[in-house]
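re: that chain from earlier
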Amino acid sequence: MSEEKRLKIAIQKSGRLADMSLQLLEKCGIFLEKSRDQLLCRAQNFPLDIFLVRDDDIPAFLSTDVCQLGILGQNALLEKQALGNGKFNGLKQLLPLGYGKCRLSIAVPHDFTYDSITSLKGKVIATSYKGLLSQYLAKQNIKADIVTMEGAVEVAPRTHLADVICDLVSTGNTLTSNGLAEKDVILHSQAVLATNQIMDLEIKLLADKITSRIKAVLRAENSRYIMLNSPTDSLEAIKAVLPGSQSPTVMPLQGRDDMVAVHAVCEEGVFWDTMEELKANGAKSILVVPIEKMLD
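^ sequence. v structure.
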């Protein structure tokens, strides 16, 4: 009897990105059995194994086909591809996941005169992202020295290791506390679902199924189901206000010739001003509810 084939996916082993990635898989209906060492999780109800590894190691797990899918920061994937050895060129991004958002930016001390990117000519830049920074400087025709650091990049100017830095920024609080000001953004990043060139057809079908579920979860999270009653003579105006709704369902109200019920899936934000505009156009009994699952 042949052994069951199992899809393997790599995610970050700790931190907020890890927590949100596990939550995403659980929303896809994957029930996980965690191991004692927390390096491997097996799904109980789907042929799937999850490897918990360092974010920077996920591209290697994909390129060697240890795993076929990976959830990682876009910055980590692009940095590996930017280093230029070609090992990771076969990896591709399938989906942006909408969380883990950050940016790779140039930041300078407050006493550093920065007019534009040309201010970096001949300067020393500390970074953990030599590949992406080198690409950016080459495109801007800027020659500068790059000092590679594995961590604590923000202290480089204070310790005279570098004039400025290029580092990941989320809130900007770390830069502020170290006397640095953000100037140019090199890359906007977020968590992405990435894959290699899956050759096994059975594994490919499993990967497609998981990808489809993730798409459905993301679509549901960004959508709302809205129900309201509309005067018949205001229906077109109300339909025009509904955000991201293509074909709302319109149903007659029992005993009313002048009112109809409108139900719609809105794939954009439904905010208070949207509801107030609907009300101003005659809508009554407006109800907005979240969607747990949605599959085309």
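The radius of gyration is 25 Å.
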